[in-house]
Amino acid sequence: MEPPRTDPTAGSTAELLRATAEHAIDYLDGLADRPVHPLSSPAELRAALGGPLPEEGVAAEEVVTGLIKGAERGVVASAGPRYFGFVIGGAVPAALAADWLTSTWDQNGVLYATSPAAAAAEMIAAEWLLELLDLPRESSVGFTTGCQMANFVGLAAGRRSVLLRRGWDVEQDGLQGAPKVRVVVGGERHVTIAVALQMLGLGTSIIEPVPADDQGRMRPDALEEILAAGDLSAPTLVCGQVGNVNTGASDDIATIAPIVHALDASWLHVDGAFGLWARTVPELRPQVNGLDQADSWATDVHKWLNVPYDSGLVIVKDAAAHRASMVMRAAYLVAATGDERDPTEFVPESSRRARGFALYAALRSLGRKGVEDLVRRCCSLAARMGAQLAHEPGVEVLNEVVLNQVLVRFGDDDAL
Q1: Which residues are 142's β-sheet partners?
Q2: What's the CA gap between 377 and 363, in Å, rounded?
Q3: Which of 105, 111, 190, 408 to pair with 343, CA 20 to 30 A apart?
Q4: Which of 93, 178, 152 is CA-nearest to residue 362?
């Protein structure tokens, strides 16, 4: 009889987690002073973390210690106050702690049956979000990885809706032989719109771009001209934007929405990666007037709401179209009945992280006033930065600072 094998990965899980938590606390305590650029080259990081795959397992404490030592010089301090590289948020304490619990509980957020708590947290957070953003309360909400997948889901629901109004069930029959869908988007749409169209099988050559003004806003008059120049009876998807990635400017949705909805088979989707949160601040809200007239909305939660990556939202006014576009049926899947929520009905994933816990925690810890103050403070700081930079020699502020972007040129016209 063979002797029992020892497991080198075994040990005190409690001790391991306490040690890891201590490192996490130390990291956060020093975040404000950390360099925001990586301190190791790619080769150095590979050397520190790499080597041949171990033949035998390595003790968990050694693995984590080695990971900390090897990766730390390649960790970007994007959650700290000195980082201005991209629009990347940090993490409010309650959301970070809830995210730790999410990994600890290790819930599969696919069905109510696999985690009633995860489903309930999503349902409650969804109701709070619709109230906070003041969007139609009958809308359905999906918790995605980010705005890329939120745009995908919103446009998938729109694709279903406009084709169904022309007698075509795209989920059942696909796109081969389907009526041709028109896709009309602003000239300065975010790249994630193009990627969503690729994944939806519509492609990017189908795009009919609408000229934008000098701040990147879609021109409503140009939209009318482009729509009128094509087949007005065709199923049509129109993509608006609130919060241009370079300028922060928002399309005039209040004017655009009636133009779009005058068509018989149309859908207005709004990419609001961070501009959607202007709805939470009274003095910023006029920038996004009429937003409730759209059919679907996409945004990030790992930006302004400061939920740990990854976290995004898709909101769809027509909940039936939303569900049908994400349909997944199998005999072994225990579908919810009554008022329970099956999270997978609203996102492309099946097995998935229960990311609703962290979002729920962020909303509960901040409250309505906390979110409002957070967005207002960020925009006020951007305006202050723009005003100060405008007085610096050799610096030109290129945009109207209306949200949280300051677009700056340094030096002559060819140097950015």
Answers
A1: 314
A2: 17
A3: 190
A4: 93
Peptide bond into 7 cis (omega under 30): no
Q: How far apart are the first and last CA of the chain?
A: 73
d(CA 401, CA 309): 27
Question: Which residues are bridge partners to 314 per DSSP?
Answer: 142, 298
310 exposure class (CB count in 10 Å sphere: 0-12, 13-18, 19+) = middle
- Single-letter residue type at 309: Y
Instruction: Kindly report the length of the chain.
Output: 416
